[in-house]
Automatic annotation (TrEMBL):
Gene3D superfamilies: Cytochrome c oxidase, subunit VIb
One GO cellular component term: mitochondrion
Keywords of the record: Disulfide bond, Mitochondrion
Protein name: Cytochrome c oxidase assembly factor 6
The keyword Mitochondrion is annotated on this UniProt entry: yes
TM region(s), chain numbering: none
Species of origin: Sphenostylis stenocarpa
Length: 101
């Protein structure tokens, strides 16, 4: 990532604009990937992401952009949050319908 190269060349100076832009591009890529997941939710998930998150082939390019623009620890964290949110929503939906697990 360009941010690491910049930080390595100037270890005593952190440019907050660079950090802010990197975060912003990460968030945009993340949001685009999760929007794709929601849009393509009716398709069968065939690809595996971190923390057991599955996604359809149609979202593979968005996933690669997301992974490219975000730190791996952030990707894992965001994936875990999304996975947990979806899991809770599924349990609540099942409870409403009277389905027991």
């Amino acid at each position: 990532m360009a941010l690491e190269a910049y930080a390595a060349s100037k270890p005593d100076k952190i440019d907050t604009d660079v950090l802010s832009k990197a975060r912003e591009s990460c968030y945009k890529a993340r949001d685009a990937f999760y929007a794709c997941l929601e849009k393509e939710s009716d398709k069968k998930p065939t690809e595996i992401a971190s923390v057991g998150l599955l996604y359809p082939l149609e979202c593979k390019q968005r996933r690669s952009e997301y992974v490219k623009h975000c730190r791996s620890s952030w990707v894992k964290h965001f994936d875990w949050q999304y996975y947990q949110k979806k899991r809770v929503q599924t349990l609540l939906d099942d409870q409403e319908r009277g389905v027991k697990r």
